[in-house]
Amino acid sequence: MGIRLGENQYGKAEVHLVHVNRDTAVHRIKDVNVTSQLRGEFDAVHTAGDNSNCVATDTQRNTIYALAKENGGVGAIEDFALLLARHFVDGFDWVHGARQEIHEYLWDRIETPEGPHDHSFVQRGGETRTTIVTKDGDNEWFVSGFTGLSVLKSTGSEFHGYPKTAYTTLRETTDRIMATDITARWRYRDTVLDWDKSYWSVRATALDVFATTHSLALQQTLYAMGEAVLRQHPQIAEIRLSMPNNHHFLVDLSPFGLDNPNEVFYAADRPYGKIEATVERDDAPGPGRAWDSVPGFV
Ligand SMILES: O=c1[nH]c(=O)c2[nH]c(=O)[nH]c2[nH]1
């Protein structure tokens, strides 16, 4: 009977680290959650409990803390993920690859009557900036994005023309609320660039298109967002978007003798439509291992 170890990776998940830059009295903070995973010659640890190659997950955690200090901070999450990946792959002969995923929680300075505060911050809603840097030998891939970017438009959205079956109850509408929590992941085709500038530009494009597209379906809005991101960002090969349709149902106020011209809605939390798509360039380089272990996307 032939049984063998297949693909494997291991490391420390969700190392939540806050770095405070105290160079001036105006502090800067970086709040990141790092998941480090290594790939390589780890057969013996699985099949024989031989740990001689096993860079302990505890060591991986400490390395994350130590490199944040030695590096003078985290910087752009893409750069920090690459630093970690190279540290492990270049530092141990038997580590052939690494997957470093970082989520960044965004904080704004608290606005006071005297202006933005020096060292007090307020977290920015549910938005999380993300990156996954995958290294396999000399190949390096970057998939960045955001999750939890919640948006709503109170008009400018229609939905009609769909097939009516024996089970269709949905009424056609020419004016509805459209609301979603955008998760986006895009694969870069460049490996050296201004990651921060790129992030804020992609985010701005996505929001602008959501706001200004008169929508006939959430699918259409999603595609328009992806298309605009690719048109305006040559450094990006493809973008994957996952957008729940957070339904808002008009409340029937007629029992109370009241009309309801699109004013009072019941915001349902489940079930929700789940709309996902990849928008890609014809001439994009292949993804290699960029999407390995990235679940939940088409
Ligand atoms: O934008 C939408 N797309 C759908 O596929 C769909 N299905 C549905 O019930 N409502 C909507 N809205």
TrEMBL record:
The active site is at K12 (charge relay system), T57 (charge relay system), H247 (charge relay system). GO terms for molecular function: urate oxidase activity. GO terms for biological process: purine nucleobase metabolic process; urate catabolic process. 5-hydroxyisourate binds at T57, F159, R176, Q219, N245. O2 binds at T57, N245. Keywords: Oxidoreductase, Purine metabolism. Its EC number is 1.7.3.3. Pathway: Purine metabolism; urate degradation; (S)-allantoin from urate: step 1/3. Urate binds at T57, D58, F159, R176, Q219, N245. The keyword Oxidoreductase applies. Transmembrane segments: none annotated. Gene3D superfamilies: Urate Oxidase. It catalyses: urate + O2 + H2O = 5-hydroxyisourate + H2O2. InterPro entries: Uricase, Uricase_CS. It is an enzyme of class 1 (oxidoreductase). Catalyzes the oxidation of uric acid to 5-hydroxyisourate, which is further processed to form (S)-allantoin. Belongs to the uricase family. This is Uricase. It comes from Lipingzhangella halophila.
